[in-house]
Amino acid sequence: MAKKRIAIIGTGVAGTSLVKFFVSDERFNENYEIDLYDGKKTMGRGYAYQHDDENLIVNLPAELMSLTSDQGDYIKWLESNKYEAESYTSRSLYGEYIHSTLMNFVHRHQNINTVESFVEDISFENDENIYTVYTDGAVSKYDAIFLTNGEMSYSDPYELKGEKNFIYNPYPIEDVLKNVKGRIGIIGSGLSAIDCFRYLLKNGHSKVTVLSRSGELPSVRGTYYDLSGEYFSIEHAMSDKNQDLIPLDRIVDLFRKELRAHGIQEELLTRKTDRPEIDLKFDLEHPDEVGKIQYLITSLEDTFKVLYKYLSRKDKTRFMEEYHELIQSNHSPMPPHGAKQILEWIDKGRLEFLDDMESVEVNDEFLVGFEDKNQKPFDVLINATGPVSDIRKDNTLLIKNLYNRMLVEPDEFGGLLIDKYHRVISPRYGTMHNFYTIGALTVGSDYLIKGVTMLSTETYHLVNHFLTRN
Ligand SMILES: Cc1cc2nc3c(=O)[nH]c(=O)nc-3n(C[C@H](O)[C@H](O)[C@H](O)COP(=O)(O)OP(=O)(O)OC[C@H]3O[C@@H](n4cnc5c(N)ncnc54)[C@H](O)[C@@H]3O)c2cc1C
Fold it and tell me: How many domains does the chain fold into?
């Protein structure tokens, strides 16, 4: 058998999990050669878990963060490396764990190599089914590509990129935010905004303002429940197993039934008032109710993932508009001690939330405008609006080049168009033989798949599909 050369582009949770499944498969042998591409600082860490301030913590308890099939793997790693096996570790520490897991594979397998470079372009030779990977200064040929490059570039809703004192991308926070001074506004109120104000307030800043359209914060993690679905299942959703679509209303009915079966009030889903002090207090005071709904949603992840694929275009649009936020905000909650600290900061007047943000005028300072026509000045604005999901808005070289070559096509629900095996669908060549992708680039097809737990298991299917055909 001729050697098969494989490029894995991006070695965060998804790329590392691919390697894990390759090396644990008995079909994987010296006839396969894997090159792992990533930057020096992010190799085997990924973007979210690179070296950064230790106050940036993971949003899942350590016992749910293992990369291997052994659920206690991360805890064992912490203990064997003399770290405290606390429930919510820092993200940097989790990055150490991913890195050491990946490097173990690399050291044990001579046919796995690291290439400390970012990939800038990929071309395809149709007759030979060969991919050429371009980095700054090097060109290499491969039989297969696994694109696991994580989130796309940051969005910039007020078009401020390049303005003085506008921080377009705040990571790594301890480098980028080290010297900011004056009146600081953070645009966005998700997990990245929390990272930014936690760092600033813990490092001596007297006050920070969080600016957003809605003012909604993630929910607070409640009590753990080991739950499983009774009604919300593929079998119950499909009246006939050859059905190609499942109506959204049927899925919503089953979800309601599931809530009732677990004694969960439906109103709990829509509990948010978008006033952080009220919402955080509510979650902290009702850990059992809140935990039940959060862990129910987590236990139904796999079903959500499959049912999402059976929605019609119309229903998918309606689902994203009407239900996604409700599911999402209960799916990625923040740890309780983080919420308590936020309340303390609000109470002391060190943290302020202003919603209904509408515009930004740039003069010597930033004048932020609100729907009620009030304005507020800031010296520094930090962008925490999160990444774009439309590949046409991404400004990284690789995605720009792939789009320009017509090797990839946007999915209208975000990321790239892929087939059910996670192979890229190209407008020029059709379904791409041996070109797989998963992670933020597959948000349009994969529901709730971007987190550690799903990526560390779902990547199995890509490796299995590839090894079955090669
Ligand atoms: C700030 C932040 C905090 C988060 N916190 C959590 C959390 O607490 N819990 C949780 O479950 N999820 C969290 N997430 C979600 C997180 O994205 C996923 O958990 C997971 O890390 C995604 O894995 P990935 O492998 O798809 O992407 P990443 O981990 O981002 O890995 C992608 C890798 O690809 C590399 N790369 C990008 N472009 C190229 C290129 N052209 N060439 C070569 N390499 C490239 C990047 O450097 C990076 O190392 C967080 C995300 C962010 C942004």
Answer: 3
